[in-house]
Design goal:
The chain is an alpha/beta fold and 400 residues long. It contains 16 helices and 15 strands. The protein folds into three domains: 234 residues, Rossmann fold, CATH 3.40.50.300; 34 residues, no CATH class; 107 residues, no CATH class. Helix content is 40%, strand content 21%. β1 and β2 form a beta hairpin. It binds adenosine-5'-diphosphate.
Amino acid sequence: MSSIILEARDVHYRYPRGMEAICGISFHIRKKEKIALVGPNGAGKSTLLKMFNGMIRPDSGLMLFANQPIGYDMVSLRMLRKRVGFVLQNPDRQIIAPTVYQDVAFGPTNLGYSETEVKEAVTTALRHVGLEGFERRPPHQLSGGEKKRVAIAGVLAMDPDVLVLDEPTSGLDPSGSEDIMELLDELNHEGKTIIISTHNVELAYPWADRAMLMLEGKILEEDIPEVAFGNPEYVRRAHLSLPTLLELYIELQKRGFHLEGKKPHTVLDMMQCIETIFENTLGHIQPGMITVCNVDQDNREYLSGWLSRRQGITVGAMGTRAKQNAEISQIRLDFTYGVIDKCILKALLGEDTLIMTTESMVQRVNQRVDAYCRESGIRITVNQLISAPESANEENGSLK
Ligand code: ADP
């Protein structure tokens, strides 16, 4: 088990002249976890999140960071806020400078970085969130999703260990929300602990490692999502709805279908459940191949040629840089979220797919497909696109 990064021990908090907003909460969060705090308005999610970086100090109980009680003097808070970045629900309240560059530079400048270090931190952060080239833009002219990205970049520029985001998808359309969740996945994959609050059960359910259901300042339930969201009584009390996939699973079980394996998090998991019911009717199809293109290898031209010989092939992109790369090369993307699973689903129908992604995520494609193959006993081949002359079936070097 990885080590604990944040902990609460029986914390209570009452706003001045207000009701008790946090009523005795205890939990621990491990490094590199993805946590979703889920609950109705007024449940205490924002209040609790603000305790993570010392913005709110509990009236009683203890908050700990890296096993040390949080100190509330200026020096301790400064150190804590470098390591725990906070992204407010409303980016207009977080973005203060007249240009994107100045806004993202605010944190590192305050931390006393040199001019060169600030520039590097800003460039890296903007690159991460896919806003290269936006440096001189006034933030008020950006879309909701872009503003959210600027706010995230402002926090990333300080390279925190933990990212806390209050309602990161509020005000965004479904595709903007998926983009943000994907960015959070990418950051988590690179080692950051991510904690979000949300009402959106459908987004939280497949995304989180653990979900905490909150109501009236307390944690109702805290567990892996299929357990936390799997208790209809808690879900009802927390004014939430069951995630659709979980509801479908429960309904199938009620009708006497014997379902093997874990509860479905994704459509791919659900297909596995259903296929066991129908005795793997798709088993006779020769699975399609998944090709992975690492866009960090500067293979744009080669990729264009490769794609032109495969008209209509399904293409997905994972990660902001890969999506930008696709846009520059005018590659139409079929999938921009949940890409690996969707490509596995295509493979099961016998179709080939291409996944455009970045260096750090290539291995993740392999791991996910391997895990699926192990669980299902179905063999799906993953190849890496390598810019070598295309010759006698040897255009792709195998990753494995
Ligand atoms: P959530 O994020 O789950 O919507 P909040 O943490 O914002 O919940 O609010 C928890 C409780 O604290 C609510 O009853 C809310 O009315 C109250 N509250 C939040 N902010 C303040 C404040 N600044 N002053 C007084 N009461 C507040």
